[in-house]
User: Fold this.
Amino acid sequence: MNYVFCPSYGALFFALHLRNSGREASVITDNPGIRKYCRHAGISCIYFDYINIPALRPHRAFTVRRRMDGIVKQIGVKSADVFYLLDNTIDISAFYLARKWSKKGKVYFNVLGRKFPPYRAEKRLSLSFVARHGLRYWLKVFLGLDLVFLELHRSPAFGIDGKFLEKNKIATLPLDRSLAELQWEAMQKGGVDLGRRDNLISSDGSLAGIIEQDSLTETYKSVLKLPHQFAAKHHPQIANRHPDEYEKVFSHLPELPHYIPVELVLGNVTRSVISVFSTSLVSASRLERLKAISLLDMVRWHDPSYREEIRAWLKKESQDRIIFVKSLEELDKLLGD
Assistant:
């Protein structure tokens, strides 16, 4: 049996690919949105609550160990059972589960999507440095994890590297399709009919520390005053963990279910997809009938150089098909054409 760990929707597309290829696949997740989608789509899913381990509470690692050991026992992992780990950042539960699984079954790893570089901007005399490395030490003691720090949105995040894979006898998964290709396959085979919408506003995940919140809110308020029809699709992260963040801004709009991957609802959109830098823009850019419109230049960034890094990534992934608007007037004209 194949088991795919899906902390986010990127890995879910690999699980859908396995199913579309006629292979059995079960999802393991700590994401409530993915659990809800699996119920909707009839996909076998093992769910556990997300376990946060703050630097000052390393003892929560015991909760990770207890729950992941419980999943291995619940499944009854055997040598023929395969576990897919498709992300190398953040999720300590996944790293421990992969380590535990590798003692009984087969584990494959690769990064499906963006690959994050090692984190270099360390200030060794800072309290945050001491706290991070202290937690890293306790995770090694309590869970047997040798973790590294990777750079995620200009901040450090726990990750794994080649040494972790070698130590735990985890094999590299040959990927013959990119995330974009897996998303395209899912769009072709699993669209969900929710009724026609002209323009879809697809909100990003948490942008705290990246974009000024007041700027983001005011920009969307201005956009929604334009004389066009809009519907909203919240990012699952916002809907799951920050339900009130955009509620006032979008409360009057028709809302598409947050738990369904945006790629599977694009068939309902007739004119455009609008976002700051959500990957939904990349997906929409592949459909000639849709305009993929980024508000990247209409909001205030804490670090303008990071904005340019995101712009370059969006251009590359969309083959330069995303439109970057600089004003409401420009956006209004695009939506009216």
User: Anything to note?
Assistant: The chain is about 40% helix and 15% strand. The chain has a mean pLDDT of 90.
